[in-house]
Write a structure and sequence with these properties.
It is a single chain. Strand 2 (about 40-45) and strand 3 (about 55-60) form a beta hairpin. The chain has 1 helix and 3 strands. It has a 3-stranded mixed sheet, covered by helices on one side. The radius of gyration is 12 Å and the shape is globular. By secondary structure, it is α+β, with helices and mostly antiparallel strands.
């Protein structure tokens, strides 16, 4: 199935990630727990009414 199914947003810090998570949750959005999917970042997911998956992610390890 071709089409748009995922969009990720970047935030700079874990604090910002937690703020976005709490804000969306306070608005009644069903959000996943914040997870570390790789060694270098953390993120959480949610879906819009059309089923498109959104993600907020932040780095937790400086790879420079």
């Amino acid at each position: 199935m071709a089409g748009f199914y995922h969009l990720a947003f970047h935030v700079d810090t874990e604090d910002e990630l937690e703020e976005m998570h709490d804000l969306l949750e306070s608005k009644g959005v069903s959000v996943s727990p914040i997870v570390g999917k790789h060694l270098f970042d953390k993120s959480f997911y949610f879906r819009d009414p059309d089923g498109i998956q959104f993600e907020f992610a932040c780095p937790v390890l400086d790879l420079k």
